Amino acid sequence: MKYACARVRFGMSETSTQQVSPQLQQPAPADAQGLGGNKLPQKKRSPNRLIVDEALNDDNSVVTLSQQKMEELNLFRGDNVLLKGKKRRDTVCIVLADENLDNSKIGINKVVRQNLRVRLGDVVSVHACGDVPYGKRVHVLPLDDTIEGITGNLFDTYLKSYFLEAYRPARTGDLFLVRGGFRPVEFKDIGGCRKVMAQIREMIELPLRHPALFKTLGVKPPRGVLLFGPPGCGKTLIARAVANETGAFFFLINGPEVMSKMAGEAEANLRKAFEEAEKNSPAIIFIDEIDSIAPKRDKTSGEVERRLVSQLLTLMDGMRGRGQVVVIGATNRPNSIDIALRRFGRFDRELDMGVPDDNGRLEILRIHTKNMKLGPDVRLESLASNSHGFVGADLAQLCTEAALNCIREKMDVIDLEEDTIDAEILDAMFVTQDHFSAAMAQVNPSSLRETVVEVPNVKWEDIGGLEETKRNLQEMILYPIDHPEKFEKFGMQPSRGVLFYGPPGCGKTMLAKAVASECSANFVSIK
């Protein structure tokens, strides 16, 4: 889906405006007008001032209150309300009841919060709005003359379907998001890397949104972050999400595309990218496969590569005067990058994306399956625990393969010559646990593709003797996996390695396979 953002101005006659204005004004209390004598009014929080909370629905025209608060304010389901936020901003919405909401809070989605210039935890005032007249004219004023990726008539493609058959009160000057061709990536679309996400928001989002924080403390904000990890772990996805959430200009540089046979052209391409980002600051420059344009200079034989590395070093050193521009580099071979780039002031921090754990894989699976038609027997927890070594791209492939297995089952009842498929067949299709199990055998983990991987079937019962050794292995390896909360409670770190020694044939390899089998872990044997 793509968001097209347009400013809509609702024009109406002067008569209509004069009829609405009195209803939007609240009379001041008697004490505030000085009619209460010399007695000062007591400071008491007004019942219509509420704390902003996240809305469960994502409708740009709806806010939610608790049923008790609606009764207190004499509001009914579907009433129009006037919301007043910061910087003299206000807007009009429809109010609905939400029993799970606290009486002191109001559920507002992200778009309405932006129109009111408020954030979660801020206070807004709610007023009954009365009848809002219908707009007689709609003027569509695009933010840009051309919005990338959008062709055709803006009104017919996006706004007509948004307003048709829907009651949507709107305020002059409001901005709202309309879903179109594709949807930009958001933080909620990324799972399995919360720790890295928190560090990235600290390193990138803060300098772009609030540079005054660093200026107040007298330090220079970070200018570069290097992301590294196995292919498919979400490096590019995170960069796009940060750019979308911060509203920053996003400039993508694919390493191999910068290279050129013409002398000086590769460096010129790099300079143009930084100049373009500077013109559109705040901006994020994302360099994918940075190891291809910034290899170690002492190990490369090409003169072009050496000049390109020197140019990149010069550009990153000159970023201090470029305003709000941040560089994100991504690679799966961090040790191949020139060492001069990997210092503070250029790439200030290096973040290892790594392979997600069980909870991370479960989070990713829930994201990929939220729109899938799943059978009642599907157990995502079991899939997450059995998909060791899988990164985000592998789990996406797993879901796709499971869906293909489901389609393959129904191929004998589907007539490919027909233009449409029978609705009964479509209703009977859903992805089951068996489809996922079959797909698991077809997908290989990206991080383990260069090695031979197996899940052994050796059990403790298959090993005779060595009881003390088996007990020690259970304490060192199985306990941290089965009871991680106890290790965390006592501040203990699990063991990172075990050394087996003994004469040939005493069972060292079999013990290792048994441990892997009991943990349901992948077994990689290196001779």
Question: How would you characterize this protein structure?
Answer:
It comes from Polarella glacialis (Dinoflagellate). Residues 221-357 form the AAA+ ATPase domain. GO terms for molecular function: ATP binding; ATP hydrolysis activity; polyubiquitin modification-dependent protein binding. Pfam families: AAA, AAA_lid_3, CDC48_N. One of its GO terms (biological process) is mitotic spindle disassembly. By secondary structure, the protein is an alpha/beta fold. It folds into 4 domains: 1-12 and 45-183, Barwin-like endoglucanases; 187-352, Rossmann fold; 358-450, Orthogonal Bundle (Helicase, Ruva Protein, domain 3); 454-524, P-loop containing nucleotide triphosphate hydrolases (Rossmann fold), CATH 3.40.50. It is built from 18 helices and 16 strands. It has helices spanning 14-20, 67-72, 110-116, 154-163, 194-209, 211-217, 235-246, 255-258, 265-279, 303-317, 358-369, 380-386, 392-409, 423-427, 433-440, 467-482, 484-489, 508-519, and strands spanning 3-11, 49-54, 62-65, 80-84, 90-97, 105-108, 123-128, 137-142, 175-179, 224-228, 249-254, 283-288, 325-331, 349-352, 453-454, 523-524. The strands form 4 sheets. A 6-stranded mixed β-sheet has the order 3-5-4-7-2-6. The chain has a 5-stranded parallel β-sheet with strand order 11-12-13-10-14, sandwiched between helices. The chain has a 3-stranded antiparallel β-sheet with strand order 8-1-9. Strand 12, helix 10 (303-317) and strand 13 (325-331) form a beta-alpha-beta unit. Helix 5 crosses helix 6 (211-217), helix 5 (194-209) runs parallel beside helix 7 and helix 13 packs across helix 15 (433-440). The longest helix has 18 residues, at 392-409. The two termini are 49 Å apart. The model is unreliable at 1-37 (pLDDT under 50).
